[in-house]
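QA checklist item 7 of 12: single-chain prediction sanity check.
[x] sequence parsed
[x] length recorded as 259
[x] structure emitted
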Amino acid sequence: MNSLYSLPDLVIVLIFCGISGLVMAVVPRLVRRIAATTDDKDSVEFAVRAQGTLLSICTVVLAFALVQAQSNYRKVEELVASEAAHINQLDRLLARYGDPNAENIRQHLRTYAKSVVDDDWPELRRGGGSPNTRGLFGPISRGVLAISPQPGRQSTIHADMVKLADALAEAREARIQVAHEAVSPMFWRVIGGLLFLIVVLSCLMEPTLARTMGLCGQVVAVSALVALVFITDRPFMGQTSVGPDAIVKAISMIEARKN
């Protein structure tokens, strides 16, 4: 399923809708031809009512999952923006500190920020972080702690730098942790089971053109919601994903401050 994230969002939606519509249009006709069943009024009425109930359940479950996925997506965007702000603010304080050791830390910070974009982000699509990026943060943290500030202005700035270094480490860990979060596999099993039951119930009814078109339309609409949940389920994968734009902007601001 992860290979689907390499496709454009519209293609994913069309795949989900196309497969579900094809199944609803073909399977009931094949089953009735093979089984040679006859219509029973009570069975048809039961199938119609049951299908309506199952479709309603699917819609409610999918709406809840979509809200959760969208909420997680916005959470990731906020985490990335916060991490970029920490990088930029720490560099600004280091520039104001006015010490050769602080300039060395700034160089490490620039290297770390670039590694977040170049090394960390591709690994996020696989659900983890880059060991190289993690190693590049060590000189920053140790460098900030090793500074011996003078009483007064430097002490105040140094205290803020220590807090920012800790916040930056926490922001990265939170970002990596969110990369692991996704809708539970049980959710996909339940949705798949409900759609399967809808197809089974459709086999109890004569597949007239009007009935087939109505059922296909309903199932395709549900499948479109399934596709939307799938697209937004992994915030670092696919066309609709959180990119390192905020980090890139922070790097450009650091470079401008350097010059």
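[x] summary fact logged: The chain has a mean pLDDT of 86.
[ ] second reviewer sign-off
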